[in-house]
Write a structure and sequence with these properties.
Aminopeptidase, 28% helix, binds manganese (II) ion, 11 helices, Aminopeptidase i, Domain 2, single chain
Length: 462
Amino acid sequence: MEKSGLSVRYGLVWDSLNDEQRAAVMEVGEDYKRFMDASKTERLCAREIVRRAQQQGFSELQSKKSLKPGDKVYSVNRGKSVMLAVIGRQNVAQGLSIVGSHIDSPRLDLKQNPLYEDGSMALLKTHYYGGVRKYQWVARPLALCGTVVLRDGSIAEIEVGSAPGDPVFYISDLLPHLSADQNKKTLAEGITGEDLNAVAGTLPGAETDRRFATGVLRLLNEKYGMTEEDFVSAELELVPAENARDVGFDRSCVAAYGHDDRVCAYTSMQALFDVQECEKTAVALFVDKEEVGSMGNTGMHSRYFANVVGQMIRLQEGACSGFDVDLALAKSALLSSDVAAALDPNYPTVADPRNAAVLGKGVTLVKYTGSRGKSGSNDASAEFIGRVRRCFGEAGVVWQTGELGKVDQGGGGTIAYILANCDMDVLDVGVPVLSMHAPFELVSKADVYMTIRAYRAFYKSC
Ligand code: MN
Ligand code: MN
């Protein structure tokens, strides 16, 4: 990195690595793809994080009678959000070092009454979740994943479309021969939310009424014990069926569904697995619902995390008041771990090239997000950025800065402001990504590798 002189020039991760480290980058890429293939929904991702954490010696916080330095614990919120912690030499009440990511990604949820038939087909109605560009979700293989609570209270897990040989689901698009009217519409209006109906089957049942829907219902009943009413108490998500793939002759990038923000979940999880002892308790937080505003009992706005911090304090101190929790949060620091928009050579005009993150130039520090005049942004303090920058510099982390596009071009947000509102120092730090929110997004393996090193440095010495 050439940052020692008077002028600043951010360098490439690859140029900073020796042969051994380059091999490590590719190994991380292989493991990352496996993680992504197992993590296509927030529930599947939470399960995969817990599975890996258990392998690393983490045990459930609720089973602990005491907490001592070096203990590794996890806590799961309703199967959709997870906290991992390595207990520090200081008590939890003295504050935490947190890296917080989200594990929900844009997708198509099934409606509560999804099944209907038309054109001699059984179809599923969807309601999109998060910021999707609807035209990207048609004419491509989709997998159906989720949880159904049956009438008797038992639970059926559905996962169809990701395993080799599985059938997939499919949303049709208009043929170019008949798209004269649609072609005149804007990209945003060409395909509407109510057009996103997925083919679920075309085999007619023997009945005289609703033959195609009944054909599908019979299969669901045989396999999962489901009836049509059970869709009401289900969370079923259509997600891209493709598994993660290497990109380029040199295999230096990974394309996958859900890099936003599971790439930051993966990197913070891996960084925490490398922490055996630490001064402040090191926490990796994986939350749900970020893509729809972090609301609800599994989102960052939920009291869940504060309650878990309270449980940890009580195990160490014997008692814990709400104010003790507030003070512990105020003494904490957070890297809000979310993807940054990388400069896209196909669309250079939407970015300020002097302030855009570039693929392959490392973990990205984002001082502020928001839209227009930084509206809704955390806008990290110079002091905290200075602290993180020194920490990364001492650890040899290759980092860059990034801003989400040109001023007034659009905008976005992360969980940063929510924990900053708890009187915590917070900075957005994450992996640069191309085609954010597309069904297949792109990251550089070098950035994934460097982000693990960055979070590790934060846990150990920031
Ligand atoms: Mn995100
Ligand atoms: Mn997002």
